[in-house]
Amino acid sequence: MRMSARRILFLAPAHAVTRIYPQLRDAGYEVGLAENLKGASAFIRKSGPDVIFSRPSLPGYRVDDLLAVGSDDPAFPPVIVFTDRGTPEEAEQLLALGARDYWLEPLTFEKVTAALPRPRRSAPAAPPQSTLGGRKPDPFPPGARIVGSHPALRRVLGLARQVAPSRATVLISGESGTGKEMFARCLHGWSDRAANPFVAVNCAALPEHLLESELFGHERGAFTGAIARKLGRFELANGGTILLDEISEMDLGLQAKLLRVLQEGEIDRVGGMETVKVDVRVLATTNRDLEEWVKQGKFRQDLFFRLNVIPLRLPALRERGDDVLELARFFIDLYVRDYTLPVPSLSDEAIAWLRSYEWPGNVRELQNLMERAVLLANGGAITPGHFLLDPDAWPLFEESSDAGDTAGVQGAPDKGAQVEAVNISGGVIPLHEMERIMILKGLEATSGNRTQAAELLGISVRTLRNKLNEYRSMGIDVD
User: Fold this and answer.
1) Ramachandran assignment for 36, one of left (phi > 0), alpha (psi -120 to 50 degrees), beta (any other)
2) Which long-range contacts (CB under 8 A, 24 or more apart) does 226-230 make?
């Protein structure tokens, strides 16, 4: 039988595998147990295990020694470290040395058997997927790209590449707009789960009762409106990766249920009577200090420990030096292609402004500002005025000397005339006229798409709709 050919070695004291050993044996697995490196070497030579589970240390043994043996041998079986008292520092160290994963006890039958390498990955011709033995995965996964060369960013990126092939949970922290989801997508894309689903859930966007159903699914009739069974995000991500975005906003009651998923690898649908097994790698993000939230009783300490196996803190944009210029040029190229516009240059004043600005909204804010600047510069030099953050920094406009165009600004005959009547020069026009003109420019640039225009202008769709209604009531054509 195919299953009887699978072999597992535990390098641990007997009591650590007492419960799981008979389950594996009865299921047809060949299981070895060693309490030192000599015994492990004998089993490896004789049986060639598919995977090795090892405690970090035993009397006269450290798992570092085993990882050193396998570091130069691509055919050496993967090593998963398991412990009853883990720390993020130990996990980071062992993963860097070559461990495939780092688990906290208890071990379960399902979790152990799911960790067996898939047959397609054991083929001799398969290319290496891991950085754990010093091999470097490159380039960035499709749909995800991290731009920047500052050491603060490269250190985080290097750690992310190292731990991506493992099953370890990763807690990605950083201010809003620093690119936490992008890092999560890279972790998934560099893993052996890249061909399987990546599912993101915003924990701050839904109230507790809806978030529970969204995560774990529900059965028909579980609550009013549950007219059919719904699979939750964990089931949809089975075999792949789930991202729990802004996990700090999750209710304490739901945190307890999530802890069970991490410990046991199983979920209960809302209103369901049976347990569902899932194989999902969990990533989480937060823009808060979770350790402080634990002290305040707003976040479970045990869940924090489970999530914080590998902590990644993303630096704020203001901490990344000239990365702001590298990113600015990246976004300029992006939007020049999107809008088919001439390539603008960055003026010295714009470069100085980009370097001096504090960037409270981080990379996301920079991206939005560069989109505006590309549209407004229209192939010319980008100046600080094109960023439109402060009305006092906006470029000055004057009415055309042509009488018809002047009347166009005052009387607003049609959309085209309003836009063409505005020329950059040394005079000024009333602020409300500038506002109207910029709104019309935004609509023109997005082909009338109000959602995109509102985002470009930095206002809500509701505000944009109210402004347009106001202009119509004044007899101004905005359609």
Assistant:
1) beta
2) 226/270, 226/271, 229/269
Angle at 359 between CA 337 and CA 243, to 5 degrees: 75
Asked if 173 contacts 311 with a C-beta cutoff of 8 angstroms, the reply is yes
Query: ω into residue 106 within 30 of 0, thus cis?
Result: yes
Lowest mean pLDDT among 73-87, 245-259, 279-293: 73-87
Report in angstroms the alpha-carbon separations of 440 from 199, 380, 432, 445, 456: 37, 20, 12, 9, 12
Instruction: For residue 304, give the nearest of 241, 243, 262, 242 by alpha carbon.
Output: 262
The residues, ordered by sequence, that sit 6+ positions from 67 with a Cβ below 8 Å of its Cβ are 79, 94, 97, 98, 99
Same domain, 331 and 448: yes
In this structure, what CATH number is given to the domain that contains residue 420?
1.10.8.60
For residues 390 and 73, what is the distance between their CA atoms, to the nearest angstrom? 60
What pairs with residue 285 in β-bridges? 172
Sign of the dihedral through C-alpha 148, 154, 158, 163: negative
Q: How far is CA 39 from CA 11, 52, 60, 68, 226, in A?
A: 9, 13, 12, 17, 56
Q: Which helix (H) or strand (E) holds 10?
A: strand 7-11
Do 438 and 378 share a domain, yes or no? yes
Is pLDDT at 293 greater than 90 in this prediction? yes
pLDDT tens digit string along 117-138?
654 333 333 333 433 334 343 4
% of the chain with per-residue pLDDT over 70 = 82
Residue 274: what pLDDT? 84
Read off the pLDDT of residues 207-250 as tens digits, 9 standing for 90 and up.
777 888 889 888 888 777 777 778 888 988 999 999 999 999 89
Same domain, 444 and 350: yes
- How sure is the predictor about 143, in pLDDT bands with cuts at 50, 70 and 90? low
Look up the CATH number of the domain holding residue 102.
3.40.50.2300
Domain count, the chain: 3
- Give dist(CA 376, CA 424) in Å, integer: 11
Domain assignment present for residue 389? The answer is yes
Residue 374: domain span: 321-473
Is residue 30 domain-shared with residue 91, that is, in the same domain?
yes
Are residue 346 and residue 466 in the same domain, yes or no?
yes
142 part of a folded domain: no
Pairwise CA distance, residues 414 & 394, whole Å: 24
Instruction: For 390-408, write each residue's pLDDT tens digit.
Output: 555 444 444 444 433 333 3
Q: Which of these three, 104, 121, 138, is where a domain ends?
A: 121
User: Same structural domain for residues 462 and 386?
Assistant: yes
Contacts of 477 (CB under 8 A, 6+ apart): 412, 413, 414, 415
Separation of alpha carbons 343 and 118, rounded Å:
48
